[in-house]
């Protein structure tokens, strides 16, 4: 065997055994952060959360998680939840909730009861949070099809089972408007005019699918009655909609356009004048994970195409383009309560894949909004917690049994990023256009960064993401941070990976106990917090630049905080 043949043989052996792949994949990814090139404010679009089950709000683990969410940042966090007007006794269940806000006496007269809605909003206000107050769904006494009403859905049941009497139009639009008027008036009396002015109100959820059993025109009619009632109760209140599903679906795009056409040029059902009040525009955006040969494969491109299409539609209305857009649900897929047990494609939820996906996708939302020239105010993460469920059952939630999951720590990282977003460059494998068009399916992962700068601080979030949740070696990353106006900086690094900020890995190392001991729970609570990798260090600055280096595992996220 010749020497060259021997070399080729050894290289082939290394590749076949995986050693060669690990060596060849160790090329350093270089990223440049330009602190002197601002790109716009770091609007806290991430500080928005939502969930289906309103009665979890004031339960034990719900209150604990809301406290933690409220502490993520210096800005108020907005919360959106379904079923605030649904008839029932307040029992919590999967994809179900009720407040009994509206019933009728034997003569058909309205009976308002704000006990449970107050309990929900009180929980938010006490923590400095703000409602994105969803007006819906239909009280049983007002529904044109009141039976069946209460459902008992479970994750192994068909999804359509949830669409019962609460999803139908009202039999009396004026009675529904009177309910809305009374509710807003009550909130002003209870919380004060200034507080309620800082909220957002919206009508319904996903009216282009089963959540609304009426027509598009009937939704528009209900919107006119609802918006009129809100504005009569508080003229300075902010109201909007229509919270359709992803606008890249044709039916959702058609619904959104019909709604916006009416707002601009339609005849108002209540006033008879042209147009309707509109203070925000909302739609949803979801990814589409699948299982490929037993491996979870995400599809971030599907979610970004939903977002971009929604932005494109809004931008086509010159008189509406300036309005705040709220992506009312913005997630890797559609059903938070569809657990991993029955939906194995959702197995990304407990670990760091959910974290890296969240970091990479939120960074691209800023870029999509800038490219379309629209005003993105918020992107609601539709994930909360599910009371009394098995540990790490694979729901799309932020915590399990009071223990935080890795994804919540991405939002803690976002909360540490202040000031303006700044430019990031480098020979990077992906940008927002490439991911929108084809997701992250190439041989290289998406290793990129989001960076901010304030007066005397900066922050750089960097991630290592790929759609395929397959094992892969860590990648060396070198980040040059330029535009520092000091001779040295103090550096603190936070990390989300298998060894940091990861209660799920800690739970597995305990043997995945079905009922952890009190001592184990204490350990899990501690490991579920955002963790630093080491003590703070001082970095030299040469010609206005500092360099940080790290080995970044696949599906990991790191945050570098600098101060001077």
Automatic annotation (TrEMBL):
InterPro entries: GH, GH39_cat, Glyco_hydro_39, Glycosyl_Hydrolase_39. GO terms for molecular function: hydrolase activity, hydrolyzing O-glycosyl compounds. It holds the Pfam family Glyco_hydro_39. Belongs to the glycosyl hydrolase 39 family. Keywords: Glycosidase, Hydrolase. Residues 30-526 form the Glycosyl hydrolases family 39 N-terminal catalytic domain. The active site is at residue 206. Gene3D superfamilies: Glycosidases (3.20.20.80), Glycosyl hydrolase domain, family 39 (2.60.40.1500). GO terms for biological process: carbohydrate metabolic process. This is Xylan 1,4-beta-xylosidase.
């Amino acid at each position: 065997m010749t020497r060259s043949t021997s070399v080729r043989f050894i290289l082939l052996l290394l590749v076949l055994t995986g050693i060669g792949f690990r060596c060849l994949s160790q090329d350093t990814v270089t990223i440049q952060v330009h602190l002197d090139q601002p790109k716009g404010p770091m609007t806290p679009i991430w500080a928005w959360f939502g969930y289906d089950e309103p009665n979890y709000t004031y339960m034990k683990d719900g209150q604990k998680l809301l406290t933690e969410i409220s502490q993520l940042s210096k800005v108020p966090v907005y919360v959106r939840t379904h079923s605030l007007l649904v008839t029932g006794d307040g029992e919590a269940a999967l994809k179900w909730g009720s407040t009994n806000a509206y019933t009728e006496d034997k003569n058909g007269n309205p009976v308002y009861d704000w006990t449970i809605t107050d309990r929900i909003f009180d929980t938010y206000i006490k923590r400095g949070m703000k409602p994105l107050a969803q007006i819906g769904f239909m009280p049983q006494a007002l529904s044109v099809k009141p039976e069946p009403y209460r459902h008992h859905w479970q994750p192994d049941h068909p999804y359509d089972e949830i669409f019962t009497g609460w999803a139908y139009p009202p039999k009396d639009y004026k009675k529904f408007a009177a309910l809305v008027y009374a509710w807003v008036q009550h909130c002003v009396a209870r919380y004060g005019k200034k507080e309620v002015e800082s909220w957002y109100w919206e009508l319904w959820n996903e009216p282009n699918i089963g959540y609304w059993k009426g027509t598009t025109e009937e939704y528009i009619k209900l919107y006119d009655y609802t918006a009129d009632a809100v504005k009569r109760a508080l003229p300075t209140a902010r109201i909007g909609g229509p919270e359709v599903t992803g606008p890249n679906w044709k039916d959702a795009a058609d619904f959104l356009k019909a709604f916006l056409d009416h707002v601009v040029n339609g005849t108002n059902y209540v006033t008879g004048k042209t147009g309707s009040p509109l203070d925000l525009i909302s739609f949803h955006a979801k990814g589409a994970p699948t299982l490929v040969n037993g491996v979870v494969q995400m599809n971030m491109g599907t979610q970004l195409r939903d977002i971009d299409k929604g932005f494109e539609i809004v931008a086509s209305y010159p008189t509406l383009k300036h309005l705040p857009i709220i992506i009312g649900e913005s997630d890797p897929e559609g059903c938070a309560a569809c657990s991993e047990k029955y939906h194995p494609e959702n197995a990304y939820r407990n670990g760091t894949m959910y974290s890296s996906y969240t970091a990479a996708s939120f960074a691209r939302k800023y870029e999509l909004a800038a490219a379309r020239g629209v005003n993105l105010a918020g992107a609601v993460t539709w994930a909360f917690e599910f009371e009394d469920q098995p540990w790490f059952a694979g729901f799309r939630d932020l915590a399990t049994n009071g223990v935080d999951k890795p994804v919540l720590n991405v939002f803690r990282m976002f909360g540490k990023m202040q000031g303006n977003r700044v430019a990031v460059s480098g020979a990077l494998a992906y940008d927002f256009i490439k991911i929108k068009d084809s997701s992250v399916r190439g041989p290289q992962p998406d290793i990129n960064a989001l960076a901010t700068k304030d007066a005397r601080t900066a922050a750089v979030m960097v991630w290592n993401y790929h759609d395929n949740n397959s094992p892969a070696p860590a990648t060396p990353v070198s980040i040059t941070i330029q535009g520092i106006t000091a001779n040295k900086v103090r550096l603190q690094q936070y990390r989300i990976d298998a060894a940091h900020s990861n209660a799920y890995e800690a739970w597995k190392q305990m043997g995945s106990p079905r009922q952890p001991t009190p001592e184990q729970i204490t350990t899990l609570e501690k490991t579920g917090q955002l963790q630093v990798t080491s003590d703070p260090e001082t970095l030299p600055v040469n010609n206005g630049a500092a360099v940080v280096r790290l080995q970044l595992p696949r599906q990991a996220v790191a945050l570098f905080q600098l101060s001077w």
